[in-house]
Amino acid sequence: MHIRGDHTELVVGGRLDVRSAADARTVLHSAVDDGAGDLVLDLSELDSWDATGLGVIMGVHRRAGRCGRRLVLRDVPPQMQRLLVATRLHRILAIEGGIGLESLPRV
């Protein structure tokens, strides 16, 4: 997993899972604490995430809200969009451009 960027926009790549969750949480929480305004997470380079990774995203979402910021997800890969829809988190998280429910394959 890799994260690059600053306190306003970060690109998350690789796998966001139980092995990388602690490091990701540290970097993302620092970005929330050190910035102002929206924090954009570009997920275009993200290969996969598991429940732990999704928990990291939700924790960053809550922390951003407490700091008066908003977490915005950008370029969410289709397989991760399906997970957000299945868990109904697409209704809670800000997703740039939204999720095209009609374009997602049915499982």
Automatic annotation (TrEMBL):
GO MF terms, alphabetically ordered: anti-sigma factor antagonist activity
NCBIfam families noted in UniProt: ant_ant_sig
Pfam families: STAS_2
Boundaries of every STAS domain copy: 1-107
Taxonomy, superkingdom: Bacteria
InterPro entries associated with the record: Anti-sigma_ant, MlaB-like_STAS, STAS_dom, STAS_dom_sf
Annotated signal peptide: none
Family membership noted in the UniProt record: Belongs to the anti-sigma-factor antagonist family.
Annotated protein name in UniProt: Anti-sigma factor antagonist
